[in-house]
Write a structure and sequence with these properties.
Layout (H helix, E strand, L loop, with lengths): L1 E4 L4 H6 L5 E11 L1 H10 L12 E4 L3 E5 L2 E6 L9 H11 L3 E4 L5 H10 L2 E5 L4 H5 L2 E8 L1 H8 L1 E16 L6 H19 L14
Parallel strand pairs: 1-2, 2-3, 3-6, 6-7
Antiparallel strand pairs: 2-9, 4-5, 7-9, 8-9
Helix pairs in contact: 2-3, 3-4
Length: about 210
């Protein structure tokens, strides 16, 4: 399994294959909804060197202070698709090459990652408690008093963080979209094998 040093280079990102499992080591920053909204709509964002720290971790971590040092209690990735409205703008604004989260993101973010030469990494079979032990140091915190520990931005130093899999590659391919297309293409064969009649209407579930 590859371990990619952060900040990820364009060549490293372009070398990664869709579905490939990797870990990352180096510096990253965190954020959730408030980061996206403020950065895009209000032009307010942490004073971070985004050339050196270009990995954005979608998480609202559980943090505690031990004397003068902050430490991570848990850092379970949060669902990234809910940030799709602002995702492409954030990628382009900060030239982000690595996004880490849960589930997937949409075509706008995929296109932006293709432009900058970046990837989206998704969790699989991981818990926030396991990831906690891969955070070697909490370097900075931004907007803590204003946004609180969950929505503020933390800067972590991580070592062999993950593993995650490449859910959107640097060519804009989306693992989940391709998986869904493959499943849909196989449905007629599966329905025939199960003697499900042509045109059968499945029950729709509305949230």
């Amino acid at each position: 399994m590859k371990n990619i040093q952060l900040p990820m280079s364009r060549s490293d990102a372009e070398s990664l294959q869709l579905g490939e499992m990797i870990t990352v080591s180096g510096m990253l920053f965190t954020g959730r909804s408030r980061f996206h909204i403020r950065a895009v709509a209000e032009n307010i964002y942490p004073d971070i060197d985004y050339e050196k720290i270009n990995c954005f971790f979608h998480v609202g971590p559980v943090m505690r202070k031990n004397q003068e040092e902050w430490e991570v209690v848990s850092c379970e990735p949060t669902s990234s698709i809910r940030f799709e409205r602002y995702g492409a703008d954030v990628v382009r604004k900060f030239n982000l090459r690595t996004l880490i989260g849960k589930t997937t993101m949409g075509p706008g973010t995929a296109e932006a990652l293709k432009e900058v030469g970046g990837v989206y990494l998704s969790k699989i079979g991981l818990s926030g408690n396991a990831l906690r032990d891969q955070v070697k140091k909490v370097h900075e915190v931004h907007f803590l008093d204003e946004l609180g520990k969950t929505e503020c931005s933390w800067v972590y130093e991580v070592d062999h963080f993950g593993p995650f899999f490449v859910a959107i590659d640097a060519r804009g391919r989306n693992y989940f979209e391709e998986l869904a297309a493959e499943a849909n293409a196989r449905m007629p064969e599966i329905e025939k094998a199960l003697d499900i009649p042509c045109g059968f209407q499945y029950t729709e579930v509305n949230g």
